[in-house]
Design the sequence.
């Protein structure tokens, strides 16, 4: 349990797929949101790379992504769970989602802190994500550095690649 937020954080199971998909669709435009089938394929391939935050027993926030030896996040990673490599050096983050009615309570931050902590404990080189320009300051609070515009065209949006590299 996170003492600051009262959030219980755990990894995902297949039974969480429906609620994960609902929150994903509340958080992202249809062109950017992962579909229910994509969420299910990801859960089957890398459930321990989904960090779920529960408040009052209800899933309210989550972070997900795959690990890889590749240094940069590519659009293909969103749809091809076969690109996951459990021994990968980098933890890619596909989404940081919080149900709209639970935002601004520190839930996304708590779940992100757990994902960062786990990546460090797994001896990864760090984490990589893409975000929209207005979210750059949020991720900088965790130590992510803006590497500039991403090559990603996911959902037709303009993305910036952010990297949190752990010191060797």
Sequence:
């Amino acid at each position: 349990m996170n003492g600051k937020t009262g959030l219980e954080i755990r990894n995902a199971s297949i039974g969480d797929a429906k609620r994960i998909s609902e929150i994903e669709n509340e958080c992202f435009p249809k062109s950017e949101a992962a579909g229910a089938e994509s969420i299910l394929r990801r859960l089957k391939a890398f459930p321990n790379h989904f960090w779920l935050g529960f408040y009052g027993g209800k899933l309210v926030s989550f972070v997900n992504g795959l690990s890889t030896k590749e240094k940069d996040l590519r659009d293909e990673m969103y749809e091809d769970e076969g690109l996951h490599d459990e021994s990968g050096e980098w933890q890619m983050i596909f989404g940081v989602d919080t149900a709209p009615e639970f935002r601004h309570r520190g839930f996304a931050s708590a779940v992100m802190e757990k994902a960062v902590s786990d990546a460090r404990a797994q001896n990864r080189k760090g984490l990589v994500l893409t975000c929209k320009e207005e979210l750059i300051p949020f991720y900088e609070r965790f130590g992510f550095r803006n590497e500039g515009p991403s090559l990603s065209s996911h959902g037709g949006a303009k993305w910036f690649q952010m990297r949190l590299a752990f010191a060797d």
Summary: The helical segments are 17-27, 36-45, 76-79, 107-121, 136-140. The mean pLDDT is 94.
